[in-house]
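name: query_chain
kind: protein
chains: 1
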Amino acid sequence: MQSLEDKNLIALVSLLSDDDFEVLNHVENQILTLGGTLIPYLENEWQNNLTPPHVQKRIEDLIHTLQFEQVKIKILDWKNSPNRDILEGFWILSTYQYPDLDFEKIKAELEQIFYEVWVEIKITEDLPFDKIKAFNNAFFNKMKFTANTKNFHSINNSMLNLVLETRKGNPISLCIIYMLIAQKLKMPVYGVNLPNLFILTYKTPDLQFYINAFNKGLIFTKEDISNYVSHLNIKDNDIFYEPCNNLDIIRRVLRNMMVSYDKVGNNEKLDEVKQIIEFLKDETDAGF
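structure:
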């Protein structure tokens, strides 16, 4: 039996078929004020076979607006959280494209990857290079994670669920998954912001080297980074060699999303991703 509240909300949503501009404007404002709780009612109305196409389009636009507002709220809460969990942050960005993406399902998939990598490396000696080589063999050769070079700018490369499903990604999405598994294995692996490329570093007080997840875990040195930066003809910077924080990583994912939407001319989504980036600016930003 429907509650009085349900009946009232259903009645409100049904008014979206009214062609009176003032009524329609009032109804849409009411729905936006009530927020995400209205999404199930809007979806039910959208699925109604009797709903005219132009009303369905109105409903679609409202659902998208409400879902986008939820993404902004979640990402702001994430930014203000004490630990800024990288998995949660990446999941929130993926819900922009896939609003119903289940966080627990994503965690379960990563847990399975962790287990399969752990099985492969548990018998390896504790020497860091040997551990990383065994990790690379499990991650890239046995589990088939690989660089999506054919569709490098595809938005799919920035969607966590699709990278896990297809095993294909861009440098940063592959690095995030690699890093999450490595850290769960108690390996000191962190992200590093390089110009035009995101990489990883294995860093302890006594040892540091670098890993290119976009090239099957290729291991390289600080000198290699210096040569790379020199070839780009840009000024050297300490941030090219040291671990970056999770906020920097999420903002880099967003920049990739911007490029993807720009490449296909989706200006509406491009503008929305720019809004999310604005939410993630902080006092230390001299520009973004």
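note: Strands lie at 146-147, 168-169, 189-194, 197-203, 208-212, 218-220.
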